[in-house]
Write a structure and sequence with these properties.
The structure holds two protein chains of two kinds. By secondary structure, chain A is mainly β. Chain A has two domains: 133 residues, TolB, N-terminal domain (Rossmann fold); 258 residues, Neuraminidase (6 Propeller), CATH 2.120.10.30. Chain A contains four helices and 30 strands. In chain A, the strands form seven sheets. In chain A, strands 1-29-28-27-26 form a five-stranded antiparallel sheet, with no helix packed on it. In chain A, strands 3-2-4-5-6 form a five-stranded mixed sheet, covered by helices on one side. In chain A, strands 9-8-7-30 form a four-stranded antiparallel sheet, with no helix packed on it. The longest helix of chain A is centred in the first third of the chain and has 20 residues. By secondary structure, chain B is of the alpha+beta class. A four-stranded mixed sheet of chain B has the order 1-4-2-3. The N terminus of chain B is likely disordered. Classes of the chains: A mainly beta, B alpha+beta.
């Protein structure tokens, strides 16, 4: 273990040096650092799976990294002789003595046509019971995805919440004059550029089924909204009206979007079909209405408006057309994003020149400020409502950061080569 | 974490430290939307299968004579930038003469078309700044309409904080970036 750690450090140094040498070659791969953790992290031991070392990319390392990154788990040394590979092999007393509350064991066996059978079991060594056991038959190319699935099962069994390790994120990178819209795994792996442009890109928004992304591009010397299929890479114009077209937000059923258009003067909210037809004005205000975000039930829409003199957050009831102001403290509350659990919304507040994230509960109207700025923006909430990813500034460049919705766990997602911004958390895999 | 570093290391070694990024076998195409400004290093970027949006009116108004006053540095019409105070979209008096000159030009040249590009400084969120830049562009447009231009000659759009003139983060840079640029179509 010590040797492995030393090798790990050496590899990090080597990777850093190579990274500097090959700065121009560096892909916008994000690496994640955990900045703070939960005090009540669950101690868990992950035993390397039987025969795992026969494959270059293992599984348990990824499972452990996922769980540790959530801040809700603390990894306990998983080496043990003899090494248990099945739930019934776990001697709970040994693991209790080591301080673990749960143990993950498993095995990997070659099957026909290069496929591999991956088995795992999760054992609660305090209650002395097996909580889960699963078998997956996959190709080595699917190891990473399989590891995320296993981490999701463990997370769900031990926390009661849905795991989001199998989800994807989208974000924009800026490297020199070049802008790219990337889609990557939630842990920053497998980044793929799906749009490349020499003009700014912003406001990526996932369709609820994860098959398409809407975004704003300035490539035509004005903001135009596109919807792009992730399978085919094809895109179509959603809105290119006279004036500016921006701030796309999908309805929960994926059939419509709300967008901000200036075609009739000012910046106003419009409903539009996902194929760009049927544009229909939602509201009329003398000021700015923008940054729509559907409530998860599709019945109401949060948005930013300066109709009261300063930018504040409002809610539009789509059935009654009634508008209600939701934010009251401070002179600048913008970018509302409804949380998928329907309980409230995340937003950006300006306070004393700093832009910080807050979360507000619908029922109590209670606000909790989550970050300190100085320039935090573009919050996007994970499908389980437990984590928020957002854009921040560090040392004069854009990075992505994550924070748990209780404010306790913080992460930084750092790219070696580019400014990173405008994160959007994709939906749960179906 | 170590696996991640391994992967990064492997990718770097595979890339041979060359300056050519490795291409993913991505199921989505990597594309450069504007063929006229193809990004370096992605010679294979294509626009296949995508629609090119028609920009209304883009073919008009380029028929100005070689001695266009728009290009003459001695003409007030060569001045194109209106600067704004923080959080403000009021067109200051110092720009009135310039805005009026453009309005009169549009009045005299009814086929001329102009686009107002609204911009903000870097403070504030991206989408809200798109709306603020739009409001600045609309303010200049409104003044021009009062001074003789017609509605159909002027399109207002916003770039928010996305295209600063000065990318620095201090008061002087911010003051330069809070602006409306007057751009004649066809220029």
């Amino acid at each position: 273990m010590v040797l492995q750690r030393i090798i790990g450090v050496l590899l990090s140094v080597l990777a850093l040096v190579l990274g500097l040498l090959a700065a121009t070659a560096a892909r916008a791969q994000l690496t994640i650092e955990i900045v703070g953790g939960s005090g009540s992290a669950i101690p868990i031991a992950i035993v390397p799976f039987e025969s795992e070392s026969n494959w270059p990319l293992g599984i348990t390392g990824i499972v452990g990294a996922d769980l540790a990154r959530s801040g809700l788990f603390r990894l306990v040394d998983g080496s043990m002789t003899p090494r248990p590979a099945r739930g019934e092999d776990v001697r709970t007393g040994d693991w209790r003595a080591r301080g673990a509350d749960a143990v993950v064991v498993g095995s990997m066996r070659p099957q026909a046509e290069g496929r591999v059978e991956v088995r795992f079991a999760l054992v609660d060594v305090v209650k002395q019971m097996q909580l889960a056991s699963m078998t997956y038959t996959v190709t080595p190319a699917q190891f990473r995805a399989t590891a995320h699935k296993i981490a999701d099962v463990i997370y769900e069994k031990l926390t009661g919440d849905v795991g989001v390790f199998s989800t994807r994120i989208a974000y924009i990178t800026k490297q020199g004059p070049r802008f790219e819209l990337h889609v990557a795994d939630a842990d920053g792996n497998n980044p793929q550029a799906v749009v490349t442009s020499n003009e700014p890109l912003l406001s990526p928004a996932w369709s609820p089924d994860g098959s398409r992304i809407a975004y704003v591009s300035l490539e035509n010397r004005k903001p135009v909204i596109y919807v792009q299929s992730l399978d085919s890479g094809r895109r179509q114009v959603l809105a290119n009206f006279r004036g500016s077209n921006s701030a796309p937000a999908w309805s929960p059923d994926g059939r419509k979007l709300i967008v901000t258009l200036s075609k009739d003067g000012g910046s106003q909210l419009f409903l539009i079909n996902a194929d760009g037809t049927g544009v229909q004005r939602l509201l009329s205000s003398p000021g700015i209405d923008t940054e729509a975000s559907f409530a998860p039930d599709g019945q109401s829409v949060l948005f930013t408006s300066d109709r009261g003199g300063t930018p504040q957050i409002y809610r539009l009831n789509l059935a009654s057309n009634a508008v209600e102001r939701l934010s009251f403290d401070g002179g600048y509350n913008v970018s509302p994003r409804a949380t998928p659990d329907g309980k409230g919304f995340v937003f950006v507040r300006r306070d004393g020149g700093r832009f910080m994230l807050g979360i507000q509960d619908f029922a109590t109207r209670q606000v909790q400020l989550l970050t300190q700025g100085p320039l935090d923006e573009s919050p996007s909430v994970a499908p389980n409502s437990r984590l928020i990813i957002y854009a921040a500034q560090q040392g004069g460049r854009g990075i992505l950061a994550g924070i748990s919705s209780d404010g306790r766990v913080k992460q930084r997602l750092v790219s070696p080569a580019a400014d990173v911004r405008e994160p959007a958390w994709g939906p749960l895999a179906r | 974490m170590r696996k991640l570093i391994y992967a990064a290391l492997a990718a770097l070694i595979l890339a041979g430290c060359s300056s050519t990024p490795t291409q993913d076998a991505a199921p989505v195409e990597e594309r450069t939307p504007d063929a006229g400004s193809a990004a370096p290093g992605t010679g294979g970027a294509s626009t296949a299968g995508t629609t090119t949006p028609g920009i209304s009116g883009s073919a008009l108004g380029s028929g100005a004579a070689a001695v266009s006053p728009l290009k003459d540095p001695k003409s007030i019409l060569s001045q194109r930038i209106v600067l704004f105070d923080y959080d403000s979209y009021v067109v200051k008096d110092q720009y009135r003469q310039m805005v009026e000159a453009h309005a009169k030009y549009l009045q005299a040249n009814r086929s001329a078309r102009v686009t107002m590009h609204g911009h903000t400084d870097e403070r504030g969120t991206r989408e809200y700044n798109i709306a603020l830049g739009q409001r600045r562009a609309d303010a200049v447009k409104k003044m021009m309409l009062l001074l003789g231009a017609t509605e159909m000659q002027i399109e207002t759009v916003s770039f928010g904080k996305e295209k600063p003139r000065n990318p620095a983060s201090h008061e002087a840079a911010w003051a330069d970036n809070r602006r409306v640029e007057i751009v004649y179509v066809g220029e």
